[in-house]
Design goal:
mainly alpha; 6 helices; about 0% strand; membrane; Hpre_diP_synt_I; Hpre_diP_synth_I; transmembrane helix
Length: about 150
């Protein structure tokens, strides 16, 4: 639902999205673990692309590569000390991995020129901003509703 709602938000730059559905992934990761978070994230990408009519289009592969990179990063980062690394830092790590993978896929497949990497500062700023916001929302939701 969040993926479809996010598609209606006007984007300042193609590929710069708030990543609201990643809040759900962070909550699932914290409550039920990495395997469940993988299922949620990958099903979200597939279902969202089907609902938006973009399955197997370039946007699907960009989203899929970003989700896989985020999940791999979260898989490693979740083993960091929780005292210093919580939902906000995990969200930022995931956002950077997501955008990094998308830039690499865009360069290798869609834009055969290194100029695509000139967008890195804009995407990095968006990753920090949205990573912090999404991480704060996830932390708040985790705090307000303890695991059953």
């Amino acid at each position: 639902m969040l993926t479809v709602a996010e598609a209606a938000i006007p984007l300042p730059l193609p590929g710069v999205k708030p990543g609201l559905a990643n809040i759900v992934t962070l909550i699932v990761l914290a409550r039920w673990g990495w395997r469940e978070a993988v299922w949620v994230a990958l099903l979200r990408v597939v279902a969202g692309s089907l609902l938006l009519g973009q399955f197997l289009a370039p946007g699907f592969f960009l989203s899929f590569s970003g989700a896989v990179a985020s999940l791999v990063t979260l898989g490693f980062a979740m083993h960091l000390p929780r005292r210093w690394f919580g939902p906000v830092s995990l969200s930022i790590f995931a956002a950077f991995a997501h955008i990094g993978a998308q830039l690499v896929v865009a360069r290798l497949w869609l834009v055969p020129h290194d100029g695509v990497f000139y967008l890195t500062p804009v995407f990095a700023a968006a990753a920090v901003l949205f990573g912090v916001v999404n991480g704060l929302i996830a932390a708040r939701l985790l705090r307000d509703r303890p695991a059953a």
